[in-house]
Amino acid sequence: MSSTDPRVAQAVAALRRGGLVVLPTETVYGLAADATDSHAVARIYAVKGRPADHPLILHVASADHVAPWVTAVPPYARQLMRGAWPGPLTVVLPRSPRVGDHVTGGQDTVAIRVPDHPLALEVLAEFGGAVAAPSANRFGHVSPTDADHVRTDLGPRLAPGMDVVLDGGPCQVGVESTIVDCTGAAPVILRPGRFSESDIARLSGVAVAPRVDESPTPRVSGSLTAHYAPRAEVVVAATTASAAVGDGLIALADAPTPEGVVRLMAPTDADDFARRLYWALREADALDLTRVVAVPPPGNEGIAPAIRDRLIRSAAGSGRRQ
Ligand code: TXA
Ligand code: MG
């Protein structure tokens, strides 16, 4: 059935002519191209300023659309996809010959997910194939959780009449999907996200195996130590005791704001924290703050480990003020 939203047809037409589509998802905005069009995918790398050996995630309309792109799917991976999609989960599986090197950076695996956003799902269903899409930010910068973030970061690099920006409102999860390597006997978490380790074990029916990093080159660019970085310096703290050393504060609502410090957000719980985090990091730069103290929520459940992961990487890459 065709969508009644004219933006869906415009986005599908853009994908078919080799253009880029800024795609809203529940995690962060993606910069999408037809996965089989190597020229269009090359433009993603150019627009982002991303090294070409960093692999992209395929986005499809449902678990039924996965088969052409992968070879072996272990039963636990099938169960995981069935339980988590549409949703903030990416699975890594052995790739089929249909997936080009331009998507995987030459690796023999492919990352694939079904995003939980009505507009994205309509575009993917109508397009029918797979789109390759990284987060729609300049390489190394904070991921966009609002269409305006994308316009600010990439707007001048997009081609009018060729590319399309779909505004789907603010992203509901706010940090990138959990990436799970499903090429072995048990799931391995490559990047934490909204689905925690216990969620992955429960949904797949198999205990999560520890990550063994055999390769010196990063398979997940978001796992580079310097990533998700604003211009302001980010300091990660366990409590607000040291908040006064900064001029900005990111912490749960119950933490007090010291005199003279800009409160960037006051989320009520970890999900709310994640939803607003990238917005707050961008706001720190908009206000020209120099040092932001961030106190992430504690614990290993839910999205808390993903928030700590992003803040630690953000801190590692931050403070490169121009
Ligand atoms: O939530 C998300 O996953 C968002 C939205 C747009 O879907 N996408 C996203 O894409 O975060 P990106 O490109 O910024 O990060 C995807 C990560 C990269 O770090 C990449 O290295 C990793 O996925 N990746 C892609 N293919 C892989 C593979 N075959 N094996 C391991 N990691 C892979
Ligand atoms: Mg990214």
How are the secondary structure elements laid out?
Elements: H1 6-16, E1 21-23, E2 30-34, H2 38-48, E3 57-59, H3 75-84, E4 89-94, H4 101-104, E5 109-113, H5 118-127, E6 131-132, H6 147-154, E7 164-165, E8 178-181, E9 188-191, H7 197-204, E10 233-236, E11 248-250, E12 262-265, H8 270-286, E13 291-294, H9 304-317
Parallel strand pairs: 1-7, 3-5, 4-8, 10-13, 11-12, 11-13
Antiparallel strand pairs: 1-2, 2-6, 3-6, 4-5, 8-9
This protein binds threonylcarbamoyladenylate and magnesium ion (MG).
Threonylcarbamoyladenylate (TXA) binds next to β4 and β5.
Key structural traits:
322 residues, 9 helices, four-stranded parallel sheet, binds magnesium ion, binds threonylcarbamoyladenylate, globular, alpha/beta, nine-stranded mixed sheet
Walk me through what this model shows.
The protein has 322 residues and is of the alpha/beta class. It has 9 helices and 13 strands. It has helices at residues 6-16, 38-48, 75-84, 101-104, 118-127, 147-154, 197-204, 270-286, 304-317; strands spanning 21-23, 30-34, 57-59, 89-94, 109-113, 131-132, 164-165, 178-181, 188-191, 233-236, 248-250, 262-265, 291-294. Helix 1 (6-16) crosses helix 5. The chain starts with 5 loop residues before the first helix and ends in a 5-residue tail after the last helix. The model has no long low-confidence stretch (mean pLDDT 92). Magnesium ion (MG) is lined by residues 134-135, 143, 222. Magnesium ion binds next to loops.
